Amino acid sequence: MRKLSASHSDSTVADGKERHKSELNRRLSFGRGDSVILKINNTEERKTIIHENGDFSDFPGIAVEDMDEINDYLQNGSLAPNVRYSTAFTPTKDGGWHVTWCVQPDGRYWEDEDGYGGENDKEINLYSHLSDDGRFTQPFKLHSIGAVK
Asked: pTM of the entire structure?
């Protein structure tokens, strides 16, 4: 289990180790079983964003206008508010985080070590914005299907 505790101002990320401010300007990726806890800037307050079981806290929903396109490609993935595959947090200039959530991996995800069992699924990623106080500011929207949107 890894935990993210991040703040742009105090420059500390705890996922098992301390990190220097220069390392915070990069994408932080998490997978199934990783809890994500945001340390609120200049305070000792912490807010759980993703629980150990993968459930999002205060899930903002999914943008209705993207549902038809998502459902056209959704095969083995899931839109349940749970991280089953991966999620990534990229710092933004406003002190918040751009959150990318994979709801369906590429079909090669299902292959065994010999290359059998793959599906023709296209990877589907959604995105939202997390403010510096740990609130989602918008519902998740379609980021990409396959290589591009």
From this structure: 0.75
